[in-house]
Design brief:
Blueprint lengths: L14 E2 L5 E3 H6 L8 E10 L2 E11 L7 E9 L2 E13 L5 E6 L6 E2 L1 E5 L2 E3 L1 H4 L1 E2 L7 H17 L10 H40 L1
Parallel strand pairs: 1-11
Antiparallel strand pairs: 2-9, 3-4, 4-5, 5-6, 6-7, 7-8, 9-10
Helix pairs in contact: 3-4
Length: 205
Amino acid sequence: MGGIGSGARRTTHIGNVEDVLALDIRALRRLGVIRPGECICETVQWSISGLNASSARLRTDLSDIERGGVMTIAMHTPDGTIKQDVAIEMVPTPLGGHRCFFVCPIISQRCEILYYARGRFASREAQRLSYAVQSMNEVSRARRKAAKLRSRLCGSGGKPRPRGRNRIDTVRRLYQADFEAKTLHLDRLCYLAHHNVGIQSARKS
């Protein structure tokens, strides 16, 4: 027979994406940092849990649409200054224009988000990062969902607060998420209470 935890699922993940800096090519395009056919230099800032964490100077050269381009990332870190080039691939879309992807410098696969870990930016798979929700139980996931909706209502993270019907829908979803979290928490408490009573009864007998 195996020991304790012998049947548990093993993982090689070494951290969570929520705890590291990330570059999302979709967000960069909305900010005007990514422009097919142009060369752009811009400074971006990150925040983790609402706190300003770092900034970087980005130089994105997409002058040659057919051949793709490159983004040069220059950033100061506690371990020193890094300068990294990341290839960008531009894929034509059926309705015209192009969709942009980073090319992971480690596994050479397309990705839309690069994460900074161990001194460089790379894809989630290459950095062996997981999502925090993967290691949460039902109660924690429900509470996390409610917290995200509450944060959205406040307009944190640089995003505008929802208005009109979007705000009404968000408030409704928040009430549902809070109710679900409280229900799961009470169910868990009841289960633990009955379980402890069963153990005490077995010991007495």
